[in-house]
Design goal:
homodimer, alpha/beta, Rossmann fold, Alpha-Beta Plaits, 8 helices, 11 strands, elongated, binds adenosine-5'-triphosphate
Chain lengths: 216, 216
């Protein structure tokens, strides 16, 4: 398990911090807003009220001993950029920073951020890539034009065998079949689809689109 | 292909609109900021300057004929909520709206949004779920604690056969092997891993974590 410091507990910072605690990592949250600090004091390993760009305070908190620092601040670019630079100068091996836009992202890379995330842009792109007549609940871009998508089993397929529902010639592969908490990898063709099943499919976006619209 | 209207061309709205045009859908962009409208006029099928909550204007633009309307506005909640309600009252089959936070999201659902997206929260959660010592470039949550992750092939595995690199007992499955633009589904055990290969792996988060930290 790792030690992670999250500087800036907005929507992004809070979501990362909470999920890392759930996964068993040790998380220190830092924010200059006392309400935020109090609200999260029960959820994170430690939460302190401090100024993200006060190098002395960050050193006193032992920031250099953390495996990763996440900077989740974008309203004031100077704060995000300085906090990232300070963390790298103190020797933190990995700094991940949220960017407001591409220009901000480029500055963060130049001052040493190991990874820059763009929540609004990436969520917009993911929504468009998983676009289809089916209700795709989530997707992963594999290469341009080829995606993995997670869908509830369409009503038109319930009760059918897999090898009937998904003929080999359609260019769509079923990677995983999820039944409750049980995940079946490479399901065999004689598996019969049931309501509530979740399918994880892979293929060219057009092939998936054709497959879904053919089920109607 | 579908007809989609995107109301509010911020980072999220612009990203969705651009990617949908790339995928061949017809996209109408609407924003009240003239600079934004001009900037995107070359990228989208149509872009107009209009007020998102002016029902007469939306009707004149023929909003009810669109398959989907996306509302990407969160600075002023009233605007997002009214635009969503107007689109549903005009009969748009699917409205997808960006929410600032959970309370905003609940109001959007109550006024008829078919789907609500939370870019900052979801990106934060995805980052934490794909957390590991390896550089996971993207991930998909299958069920709680089980993910699919896309990684560059680790240096320690280059030159090795798949069945050596990934022993069956580790609880990690290789779903796809990506070599340039070529995607190999269910790669066979005698495949030899090369630099630049991209692996799409599935497994319990702990099993993936163990697999990655064992490669060092
Ligand atoms: N100098 C600072 N020191 C510590 N915390 C700060 C500082 N500046 C901002 N913050 C905190 O960082 C958090 C996120 O800040 P900000 O609003 O800039 O980011 P955001 O990108 O809008 O966040 P979100 O993740 O909600 O989109 C807030 O909780 C804020 O109190
Ligand atoms: N009443 C309105 N009519 C039309 N467009 C509007 C209206 N209000 C805001 N917009 C536009 O919507 C876009 C996004 O607005 P806003 O800043 O509220 O969202 P945001 O959630 O901060 O965006 P993002 O995070 O995606 O960048 C802006 O380009 C803005 O000009």
């Amino acid at each position: 398990k790792q030690q992670v410091a999250v500087i800036g507990l907005g929507r992004f910072g809070t979501a990362v911090a909470r999920e890392l605690v759930k996964a068993g990592h040790e998380v220190l949250g830092i924010d200059h807003n006392l309400d935020v600090v109090q609200e999260l004091s029960a959820d994170l390993s430690h939460v302190v009220q401090a100024d993200a760009i006060d190098q002395d305070t960050l050193q006193r908190l032992g920031i250099e001993d953390f495996d990763t620092v996440i900077v989740g601040i974008t309203e004031v670019l100077e704060t995000s950029i300085l906090a990232t630079l300070i963390a790298k100068r103190l020797g933190v091996p990995r700094v991940i920073a949220k960017a407001r836009n591409e220009l901000h992202g480029e500055i963060l890379e130049r001052v040493g951020a190991d990874r820059v995330v763009y929540p609004e842009r990436d969520t917009g792109m993911r929504l468009a890539h998983a676009w289809s007549s089916m209700d795709i609940t989530d997707s992963l871009d594999v290469v341009e034009g080829y995606i993995i998508s997670r869908v509830m089993v369409p009503e038109g397929l319930v009760g059918r065998r897999l090898d009937e529902a998904l003929r080999a010639d359609e260019g769509v592969s079923l990677l995983l079949l999820v039944r409750g908490a049980h995940v079946i990898v490479y399901p065999s063709g004689d598996e019969v689809l049931a309501t509530e099943d979740v399918l994880v499919l892979a293929g060219q976006t057009e092939a998936l689109e054709r497959f879904f619209s053919g089920i109607r």
